[in-house]
Amino acid sequence: MKNVFLLAAKAGSLEGYLYQRTKLDNLDNWVDNIIAMYGKLPAGAKAAIKAELELVLTRALSYGEKTLEPALKAKLNGLLTSVRS
Q: 83: part of which helix (H) or strand (E)?
């Protein structure tokens, strides 16, 4: 459950930064960390956070629509697709 909490914290922080339109030098690494953490979660943990993570990612993509680089958008969209499946 520690990993689930850390993932939620990182994803929530990402959403907050994008909402405030704050630039992070290591935003790409941050997203990579979220993707890696999600990939390592057991199926039960993924199911437990699926709805919340989907909501956070959807909002983050919406907030960063005009500011995110295409490659970073693609990574977030890929994670969102993975969460939805």
A: helix 70-84
Residues 6+ apart with CB under 8 A from 16: none
Residue 15 CB contacts under 8 Å (≥ 6 apart), including other chains: 56, 59, 60, 63
pLDDT value of position 3: 65
Return d(Cα 66, Cα 72) in angstroms, integer: 12
Structure tokens belonging to residue 1 = 């459950």
Q: Measured between alpha carbons, how far is residue 18 from residues 39, 43, 76 in Å?
A: 23, 28, 12
Tokens representing residue 27 in the block: 């935003």
pLDDT at position 78 is: 94
Residue ranges per structural domain of the chain: 2-84
Task: Give the pLDDT means over successive 10-residue stretches in the chain (85 positions).
Answer: 65 67 62 85 87 84 80 89 92
